[in-house]
Amino acid sequence: MAKIIDGKAISAQIKEELKEKVSALKADGMEVTLAVIQVGKDAASSVYVGNKKKACAYIGIRSLAYELEEDTSQEDLLALIEELNGREDVNGILVQLPLPGHIDEDKVIQAISPRKDVDGFHPQSVGALCIGQPGFVSCTPAGIIQLLKRSGIEIGGKECVVIGRSNIVGKPMALLLLRENGTVTVTHSRTKDLREVTKRADILIVAVGKPKMITKDYIKEGAVVIDVGIHRNEENKLCGDVDYEDVFPVCSAITPVPGGVGPMTIAMLMNNCVESVER
Ligand code: NDP
Fold first, then answer.
1. Domain boundaries defined on the chain
2. Ligand 1 within 6 A of 198 CB?
3. Is the CB of residue 166 below 6 angstroms from any atom belonging to ligand 1?
4. In CATH, which of 3.30.470.30, 3.40.50.10860, 3.30.1330.130, 3.10.310.20 is domain 29-115?
5. Ligand 1: which of 173, 190, 228 to mutate, most ligand atoms within 8 Å of CB?
6. 133 tagged catalytic
7. Tell me: the pLDDT tens digits for 152-192?
8. Among 2, 7, 121, 126, which one is least packed by beta carbons within 10 Å?
9. What is the residue-wise DSSP string for 37-88?
């Protein structure tokens, strides 16, 4: 019987630990502050931003909300980031993506000081991860490492296969698994025989962005399956990139959607905010 990896419970545990750290920092006279910038009123982004603010309030992190108009110029956005970079009382800066089409996301990401880059998207943060130096790590992959470790799943020496090579999930995921001494293979849309590769995996991380694409035909008996995908199906219910019911009987452990990887992303964002002060 497969073990269900409970991201809700593990993220709650991390939040409790962070709450304690934040109150200890406060006792030493240090406050943790996250600046959250949203440009426009994209409905999904508003939900994400709302959840981040709620998590900050719960843990005791002060959040500063900047809700900018859809037609805000790139220049004005960059000027705000510059101002926040220089503020001693701001530890983390987060710009909610995606940005409106007239703004160059890469320029915005690069404008955030690496010292305050709590999303871990700045090229300097990615470079630091690549060469094993300290820096902020992208929250979703960092959360997956915590899910594995806190579920007692050994990564060292294991065959780890990542489906997807995006900058925010696939690539940093592969680097983190490598840092944990996994033997890592990264697959993508040009991979010739995906099933043949995924069937070698002891740990399979699925970030393909296609609802229920991964069935039991892709899984080795006893593998650990981590599903990063989030989609709404025909009945408006959440589902992942993995066909959960089909895969469940063959794997040894699996993350559900919802309640698996999703809750970990915000927990790790909060963790990065606290780390930015501790550093
Ligand atoms: P992207 O669309 O940026 O990347 C998808 C990757 O999958 C690409 O590298 C692509 O290859 C690869 N791919 C597409 N089709 C195939 C195929 N048939 N076979 C093999 N590989 C394929 O997605 P993200 O990485 O941003 O996100 C992945 C999923 O995770 C999405 O469902 C997203 O909603 C979810 N997500 C969830 C988060 C959470 O907090 N739980 C956070 C971030 C994302 P190629 O590079 O060749 O195009």
1. 29-115, 139-262
2. no
3. yes
4. 3.40.50.10860
5. 228
6. no
7. 999 999 999 999 999 999 999 999 999 999 999 999 999 99
8. 2
9. EEES--HHHHHHHHHHHHHHHHHT-EEEEEEE-TT--HHHHHHHHHHHHH-T
